[in-house]
Amino acid sequence: MMSSSILNDVPSSWYLILSALLFTLGVVGFLIKRTLITVFMSIELMLNAVNLSFVTFAHEWHAVKGQIFVFFVMMVAAAEAAVGLAIIISIFRARATLNVDQIDLMKL
Amino acid sequence: MSLYLYLIPLLPFAGFLINGFLGSRLPKALVSTVALGFPLAALAVVVRAALLAWPGSSSVALPYVENFGGSWINAGALHIDFTFALDQLTLIMLLVITGVGFLIHLYSVGYMAHEESYWRYFAYLNLFLFFMTVLVLAENYLLMFVGWEGVGLASYLLIGFYLDKKSAADAGRKAFVVNRIGDFGFLLGMFLLLSQFGSLSFAKIGDALALNPAQHGGMLTAIALCLVVGAAGKSAQIPLYIWLPDAMEGPTPVSALIHAATMVTAGVYMISRTHGIFDRSPFALAVVAIIGAATAFFAATVGLVQTDIKRVLAYSTISQLGYMFLGCGVAAYSAAVFHLMTHAFFKALLFLAAGSVIHGLGGEQDLRKMGGLRKKLPVTFWTMTAGVFAIAGFFPFAGFFSKDAILYEAFQHGTFGKSLYFVGLVTALLTSFYMFRLWYLAFFGESRADSHDFESHGAAVHSRSDSKLVLEAEEPHHVHESPWIMLAPLVILAALSVAGGWIGIERFGSFLAPVVGPVVDPTLEPGGKMLDVTLSVIAVAVAILGWFVADLFYRRKNDRPAKLAAALPGAYNLLVKKYAIDELYNATIVRPILLGSRYILGGLGEGAIIRGSAWLLAGVTTLLGEWLRRWQSGNLRSYSAWLAAGAAVLLLFAASYYLGSNGMDIHINWAGR
Amino acid sequence: MDNIILTQILVTPLVGALLVALLPDRRKLSAGVALTFALLTFFFTLHLPAHFNPSVSGFQFVQDIPWISTPAIHYHVGVDGLSLWLVVLTGLLAPVGVLASWKTIQTRSKVFYSLFLVQQTAMLGVFVSLDLMLYYGFWELSLVPMAILIAMYARTSGGNEGPRAALRFFLYTFIPSAPLLVAILWLYAKTGTFDFQLLQGAIYYGRFSPETLCWVSVAFLIAFAVKVPVLGLHGWLPDVFSEAPVAMAMVVAGKLGLYSLIRFHVGLFPVQAHQAAPWLVALASIGVLYGACLALVQKDFWKLLAYGTISSLSFCTLGIYGFTVTGLDGGVFQTINEGVIGAAMFVLLGVLYDRFGTSQISSYGGLAKKAPSLATLFVLISLAFMGLPLLNGFVGEFLVLSSTFGGVSKGWAAAATVGVILSAAYLLTLIQKVFYGPASDMTLANPNPDLNGREKTILWPLALVMLAMGILPNLWLTGIESQSKSVIGWSNLKPFVVPDCIHQKCYITVSSQPSGGQK
To answer: Among partner residues B634, B640, B671, which is closest to A104 by beta-carbon distance?
Structure first.
C-alpha cells in the first residue's frame, strides 16, 4: 500500500499512454531525423519511455523487480551513449558531415 | 598330341611387339629377320598340325579344340572362353594365311627396302597375321570378332602407312568406318545368337541346331542377314565395298595380303562357318547369292575402264569375292572356299607382280603410261601371265577349276540359280577382257612412259603412293627388274596359280565335307558329268572371247577403245566415275549426318535448349542476387525503417498469439483501480 | 588393419592437403608433396582388392562409429563389389592427375594441389559412405574444389570467363542437389536414421507408400543424373571440359553420378527405378547417338571429348537401367573403363594443348612424324574408347549392348549399337586431322612435341590397364558381380526384372532380403 493518495488518483493507464507516446516520438524521431545526434537523442527518448513503463508496472504489481530493471536500462543507455558519441565523433572526423543519408559506405 | 594352336597367333604377335617397340633402334637386317622368322615359325606350326591332322594319319582327330587361358568373360549369363579350334576349314585358311602371308612378307623385304619406317611396316604386318589367325582359329563368335575387328585395325594402320599423305589417312579411315558398319551387323547377329542360343560357341550352336532339325525361319533368317551385313562389310560386297578401291593407297604388298588374299576373305569364311544357320534359311542364302552375283558383275564393269593398275586389281578382287559369295549363296561352300584358296594364289600374285611393275617403273601406276615391259621385266611378265590366265579361268590354271565349280553349282540351283549362272558367265567374260586389257597395256606395244620419267629426278612421279620414290628418284631412273627376293615369291605363287586347282573340287569338297556339308559331285548325278564338261567348255570359250576382244582393242595401239568410248559416252562416263556411288553415299548419308549434327543437334539442340538452360539457371540466380542486393543500400534510415517494421510485425505476431491463446486476460488498470 | 583402412584412405589426402597448404608455394615442392600423398593413397586403396572376398555379399571393411547424436549421423563406411574398383580407380587417378599437372600448373600451385587432394578425399568419401548424411557431405564437398579451380585456371582468356564458368558449373550441379537434401531429411524424419542399409530395409518392408516414394526417388534421380550426365542434363559438361584443368576435369564426369545412381537410386528405390527405367534406357540410347553425332562436327577437341564422353557414359546408364545382371556388370565395368580411358584422353589432349596452346583441331596436322610415341598412344587409347576388342571398352560395351538387346529392348539396343560406327568415325577423324597428312605450320614450328618421360609414365600404365581389362576382365567382373546379383536379386524387384534367361535356364540368385541388416 502506497502512502500518498495523490499518487493513487492517477490511473496507471495514463502513465502507460504517456510512455507509449514518448516511445512513438522516439521511433518517429529515429526514422525521420537526419542528424546523427538527433537520432541518438531519439534513441535515448525511447529508452526512457520504456523506463517509465517499467516503473508503472512495478507500482501496479508492487514488484521491485521493475525498478531494478530501470537501473539496468539506464546503465546500458549511458554506456551506449558514451560509445555512440565516440563513434559519431570519429565519423565526423572522417566524413565531415553528420547527415545520416551521406554515411552509406556499407552498401553492397 | 598337342598341336600348340596358341602359338600360331602368338608368334606373329611376338614379332609385332619386338619390331614395334624396339624396331626403330634395331638394324634393318635384324628387323627383317624378326619379321620373317616369326611368321615362318607360325607357318611351321601350321604345317606340322596339318601333317598330324591330315585325314590319312590318325595322330590327331579333327576338330581339335584347345582352350587357351580359360574363361575370357564371365558376367551374368554370358560366358565366353578363349577357345581355339582346328578343323578342316580352319586348316585350309591357316595354310593360305600363313603360307601366302609368309611369301608376301618375303616380298615386302625387297619392296619396302628403302622405306624409312621399315620396322613399323613389318610390325603392323605381323599384327595383321596375329589377328587373322585368331579370326580363323576362334571357336566362338566373340573371339572371331576380336580377329575381325583386329584385321580391320591392321588394315587401317597399313593403308595409312604413308603418314604424310592425306589421301592415305582418308582411305584408312574410310576403310575402318565402313568395316564398322559391317561390324554393326555382326554385333546384332551376335546379340540375336545370344538371345536365341544362349551361347556364341560354334560347337554349342551347332549342337543346339542339331537337336532341333526342324528349326528354321524367322529368327535364323534375322541372324543370317545380320551376319551377311558384317560379311559384306569385310568382304567388300555391295553396298559396303567402297573402301576397297581407296585402300590401294597403302603399299602394294598390303593390298596383296590384306585386300586380296586374306582379310577380305573373312566374310566368306564366316558365312561358311555359319552354314548351319544359312542352310536353314533359304531367304538369307538367296540374299547372299544375289549380292554376290550383283557385286561380281558390277565390279567387273567398273574394272573395264580403270587406268590405275591397282584399281583394276581392286575391282577385280571385289568381283571375285562376289563369286565366292555366289558360291556360298547356292550352298556350295566348298566351292566358295576352293575359289577363296585359288584366288588367294593368283590375286596375291597379280598384286605382287603389279608391285614389281610399279617398282620397276619407279612408281608409275597409270596403265596409260606403261607398255612394252615384256622384254624389260621378263620374270614379272611371265608370272603375271600365269596370274592373268588363272583369273580369266583358262584350263588348266587354278581359277578355272574353282570358278567352274561355283558356276556349276549355281547352274544346278534351279531357275534362280541359272540366272545367277548367266550373270556369272557374263562376269567371267568381262573379267577375262579387263585382265587381258591390263596385260596388254602393261606389257605389250611401245612404251608409253613419259621419257623424262627415265631421266629426271622423279618430280613427276611423286604423286604415287609408294613413298620410296622419295629416295629412289634421287638418281636417274631406268626400268629394271626386281631383286630376287621379290621375284621368288612371284614364281612360287605362279606355280600355285598354275597347279593350285589340280586338287579338284571333288577331293577338296570331300575334305571339307565334315565342316561345311557335302559337295555336289557331278559324277554322281545323272548327266552331271556331261553338264559339267559342257559348262566348262562354255566358260573357257567365254574366256577366250574376252581375250580376243582385248587383243583387238589393246594389243596394238589403235583407236578402237577410244571410238567405243565415244560411241557410248553416257555409259563410259558412268563407269569411269564408278557409278558415282561414293558421291551418292556422301550426299545422302555423310553430309546429312554432318549437317544435321552441326545445325540441328548443335545449333538447335545443344545451343538453344540445353546450353540455354545452363545459362538460364546461372543467369536467373545471378539476377536474383542482383535484385536482392539492392536491399543492402547502406542507407541508415532505410535500415532503421525495415528494423522498425520488422519489430512491429514480430510484436504483432507475438501479441496475437499470446492474446489468442490466453484470451483477453490482461487486466490493465484503466481509468480507475 | 582391415577395419581402419577406409579411414586411412580418406584421411591421407586430407593430411597431404594440409601439408601442401602449410608449406611454401613452390611448384615442385607442392607438386612433390601432393604426389607422395597421392601415391600413398593409391597404395592404400590397393589393399582393398587384395583382401576383398567376392563370395561374401554385403559390405566389407566396415566402420560404424556414432558421430553426432542429434540428428543421428554415424561415420559409417564400407565397400562392396560395386564401390571397390571405383575406390581403386580414384586412387589411381590421383597420382595421374598430379603428374599430368606437373608442368601445366605454373602459378599458385599450392592452392591447386591442396584443393586437388581435398577433392580426392571428397570423391573417395562419396564411394565409401554408407550414412546418407555423410554421403551428402562428401557429395557436396566434391563440387567445391572443382568450382574454385575452374575459376582460377580457366583456359578462355578474358578476365571474367573463369569465374563465370565456375559459377555455371557449380549452380548447375548444386541446385539439383537441394531437393536431394530435402529428400534425405524427409527420409530421416520418417525413419529416424540416415543409415543406408537401415533405410533400404525400411523401404523394402513397405514402410512407405509408393506415391510418396515416387517424389523422393525422383529427387534422388535428378541430383545424380545431372552429375553423370544423362542426356538432357548435360549442359554443364562441354564448358567444364574446355575450362577445367586436366587433373580436375578427368574426374568430374561419370563415376560419382553413376555410382550414386546404382547405390542410392536403384539400391534404395528399386521399384521406382524400374518404373523410371524405360525413360532412362531411351535417354541413354539416344544419348549414345546424340553425343557421337555432335562429337563428329566439333572444331575444338575439348568439346569433342565432352560429347564423346556423353556418348560413352550413356552406355553405363543403359546397362544400369536394363536391370539384368549382365547389364549391370557391364554398366559398372564401363564406368571403370570411362574413368581410365577418359583420364588418358585428357592427358593426351592436355599434352597437345601444352605444346601448341590451342584446341582448334584445324590448326593441327602431320604430327605423327614428329611425335611417334604420342601418336601411338593416342591411337591406342582412341581404339579403347571406340571399343576395339581386346581392350577394355569393348567388353563393357558388349556386355551392356547384348544384355539390353536380349532383355530390354531390341530397338534401343540396335540404336545404341550404331554408336560404335559413329565413335570410330569421330575418333579417327580427330586422329587423322591431328596426326596424319602434311604437317601444318603450327606443327612445323614446334621442334620437339613428343611425349617426355613423365607423360609416358602416366600413359603407358594406363594403356596397359586398358589392355589387361580387355583381356582379363574377369579379374574385375567377379568383384562387381558379387554385388550385382544382390542388387538385382531382391524379391521386391523380381516380378519386374528380366532375368538373364535363355530357354528357361535363368540366371539370377534371388536373395529374399536385401543385404545387410534390417529392422
So the answer is: B634
Q: Are C236 and C173 in contact (CB under 8 A)?
A: yes
> CA nearest B287: which of B227, B244, B247?
B227
Task: Calculate mean pLDDT across residues C64-69.
Answer: 85
CA angle B614, B618, B621 (to 5 degrees): 145
| Cα C385 to Cα C377: distance, rounded to the nearest angstrom | 12
Taking contacts as CB-CB distances below 8 angstroms, the residues of chain B near C395 are: 73
Residue whose cell numbers read 500518498: A4
The set of cell numbers assigned to A75 is 546503465
Distance CA C267, CA C323 (A): 12
Q: How far is B625 from chain A (nearest CA, A)?
A: 11
- What ipTM did this prediction achieve? 0.89
C-alpha cell at C317: 546408364
DSSP assigned state of B481 = P
pLDDT, tens digit (0-9, with 9 covering 90-100), for B232-277: 999 999 889 999 999 998 999 999 998 888 888 899 999 999 988 8
Q: Are strands B78-86 and B64-75 parallel, antiparallel or unpaired?
A: antiparallel
Residue C498: predicted pLDDT: 47
Write out chain C residues lying below 8 Å of B178, CB-based.
none
Backbone angles phi, psi at B73, to 5 degrees: -125, 135
| Lookup: cell for B56 | 590319312
Interface contact flag, B605 C399, Cβ < 8 Å: no
Judged by CB atoms closer than 8 Å, whether chains meet at A13 and B671 is answered as: yes
User: What are B374-427's pLDDT values in tens digits?
Assistant: 888 888 899 999 999 999 988 888 888 889 888 988 888 888 888 899 999 999
Query: Which domains, ranges and CATH numbers included, belong to chain A?
Result: 2-95 (1.10.287.3510)
Instruction: Please list the alpha-helical segments (H only) found in C358-473.
Output: 372-385, 392-407, 410-435, 441-445, 453-471
E strand or H helix at B188: helix B166-197
**Touch A-B: 3+ C-beta pairs under 8 A:** yes
Of the ranges B614-628, C370-384, C402-416, which one carries the lowest mean pLDDT score?
B614-628
Q: pTM surpassing 0.95?
A: no
Omega before residue C372 within 30° of 0, cis: no
Q: Is the per-residue pLDDT at C497 higher than 70?
A: no
Mutate to test the interface with C, among B17, B173, B589, B590 (most CBs of C within 10 A): B173
Which residues on C lie below 8 Å from B615 (Cβ)?
168
Provide, rounded to the nearest whole percent, the portion of chain C with pLDDT above 90. 46
CA distances to B150, B186, C367 from B23, rounded to whole Å, are: 21, 35, 20
Question: DSSP letters of B340-382?
Answer: HHHHHHHHHHHHHHHHHHHHHTTS--BGGG---HHHHSHHHHH
First to last CA, chain C: 30
Residues A21, A24, A26, A31: what is their CA dihedral angle, to the nearest 10 degrees? -160
What angle do the packed helices C453-471 and C372-385 form, to 10 degrees?
30
Mean of pLDDT values over B96-118: 90
Q: For residue A39, what pLDDT band results from cuts at 50, 70 and 90?
A: very high
- Of B5-9, B264-268, C327-331, C477-481, the least confident: C477-481
**Shortest alpha-carbon distance between residue B359 and chain C (Å):** 24
**Structure-block grid coordinates of residue C91:** 586412387
A30/B640 touch (CB, cutoff 8 Å), yes or no: yes
B635–A60 CB contact, under 8 Å = no
> Torsion angle of alpha carbons B312, B317, B322, B323, nearest 10°?
100
Nearest chain B Cα to C365, which residue? B164
With vertex at residue B224, the alpha carbon angle to CA B218 and CA B225, rounded to the nearest 5 degrees, is: 90
Mutate which: A27, A28, A31, A100, vs B, most B CBs within 10 A = A31
Helix (H/G/I), strand (E/B), else coil: B658: helix
Q: How far is B664 from chain A (nearest CA, A)?
A: 17
